[in-house]
Design a protein that fits this description.
Length: about 450
């Protein structure tokens, strides 16, 4: 997402690069290109125009301090306005009430049911909630079955009423069931509906009136672009929802919905779906998204994901093994599993400043670890624990068992041996900066040789 917009904005800022100061002429030329880039990204025309007018007013009113070049100042102003356009502050979900009731609304195919499961999993693990999923889509049997499958995957019960075709009554009964059985979070999944379908819109309004949710979320597929914004407005006029969920942000989408929707419906984006996995859900941070649009990465989110996957006890155990130079392939496999928990590899790499552009055309397959895992799994427990015993005949057996070549096995063993040496050396030098500096210098000299 946003790759094309990021490229276009970068080209726009080059128009002012090398200029000694910000003037009406070079700002106008730059912002004309910025406006085109926003429109090409499917941003609402009025939103794009107001955005560039605001940036122009702020840019012309600023003096360029010596530490900044005009194009750098322009990037900062555009960044701050992009963050403001998307809501400025991160919007929190309202978890008051006993139980907390969250009502899902949206179009058919927007990803409501999947998101319901993702949100239940997130709030269960991060907020220690005891969630209940409620199936109120009585028109599509597959939706009820889908919610049941999701519930079993995340170990969350699903409330259904076979034979009852009244979603308002089902929702009411589910709240009573939740209270009686000590669930403190109820997520109500409703049928997908078209904004022009008067009967269905009346029905979801009736569900909201009946259960009085703490949160009504509008789930929208970001791939639908400007249509998503128009639909959000129609739903908001009827439901007065509390926040927006943008799904499929990992797809090949131009990003206009994310940039326009906050201004058009005056409701915050609260969550984004970033992939198919059930943990591929993030709170929406306007400033971080502005960073990513402008190619600055998103280190904060990267660190947060790493912390979620991080096991402190495991880290201490590994540190002890590295200190004794006993790090082995079992440890290596556990590290691979932690990295995979963090999400899509290309998405993770793009969070590192400067990397997003470099990997734009690089295909980083999420299955990249599979050959490595196959090789390690083809080793015996003794070989994984003591890689140094792997001789030529063992390498041939491992290659055959893993479906890889002997060259791939040799490469992994060499890389592992080099990594283990570096980890052990770095650990030994920890706390002694002078020794560490000398070691780094020696390593650079070795590379030159």
């Amino acid at each position: 997402m946003f790759e094309n917009l990021s490229e276009r904005l970068e080209r726009s800022f080059k128009l002012i690069k090398g200029q000694g100061k910000i003037t009406e002429i070079n700002v106008a030329e730059t912002l004309k290109d910025v406006r085109r880039a926003l429109l090409d990204a499917d941003v609402n025309y009025k939103v794009a125009k107001n955005f560039t007018d605001t940036v122009k007013a702020k840019a012309l009113g600023q003096n360029v301090i010596n530490a900044l070049k005009p194009n750098e100042l322009m990037v900062k102003i555009v960044h701050d306005e992009l963050a403001s356009l998307m809501g400025g502050e991160t919007a929190q979900i309202n978890l008051s009430g006993n139980p907390t009731v969250i009502l899902m609304s949206g179009l058919q195919g927007s990803g409501k049911t999947t998101f319901s499961g993702k949100l239940a999993k997130k709030l269960k693990s991060e907020k220690a909630k005891r969630p209940l999923l409620v199936a109120c889509d009585v028109y599509r049997p597959a939706a009820i079955e889908q919610l049941k499958v999701l519930g079993s995957q995340i170990d969350v019960p699903v409330y259904t009423e076979e034979g009852n075709n009244d979603p308002v009554q089902i929702a009411r009964n589910a709240i009573k069931y939740a209270r009686d059985n000590h669930f403190d979070l109820v997520i109500v999944d409703t049928a997908g509906r078209l904004a022009v379908d008067e009967q269905m819109m009346t029905e979801i309004a009736a569900i909201k009136d009946a259960i009085k949710p703490q949160e009504t979320l509008f789930v929208v597929d970001s791939m639908t672009g400007q249509d998503a914004v128009n639909t959000a407005k129609e739903f908001n006029d009827r439901l007065d929802f509390d926040g927006v969920v943008l799904t499929k942000l990992d797809g090949d989408t131009r990003g206009g919905a994310a940039l326009s929707i906050r201004t058009v419906v005056t409701k915050p984006i609260k969550f984004v779906g970033t992939g198919e996995k059930l943990d591929a859900i993030d709170p929406f941070h306007p400033s971080r998204m502005a960073d990513r649009i402008l190619g600055m990465g998103d280190v904060v989110t990267l660190v947060e994901r790493a912390q979620k996957a991080y096991d402190e006890e495991e880290a201490k155990r590994l540190e002890r093994k590295i200190a004794k130079n006993q790090f082995n392939f079992d440890d290596f496999m556990s590290q691979i599993k932690q990295i995979k928990k963090m999400g899509n590899l290309k998405d993770l790499a793009a969070m590192i400043p400067g990397v997003s552009k470099a990997i734009k055309d690089v295909d980083i397959d999420d299955n990249a670890f599979k050959p490595i895992e196959a090789i390690i799994q083809s080793m015996t427990p003794a070989e994984r624990a003591k890689p140094e015993i792997i001789n030529s005949s063992r390498r041939q057996r491992i290659a055959k068992g893993s479906g890889t070549s002997i060259q791939e096995v040799n490469r992994l063993l060499k890389q592992f041996a080099d990594t283990r040496k570096m980890m052990h050396a770095a650990n030994a030098l920890k706390g002694n900066p002078m020794k560490l500096k000398r070691a780094m210098s020696e390593m650079r000299n070795l590379k030159r040789k």
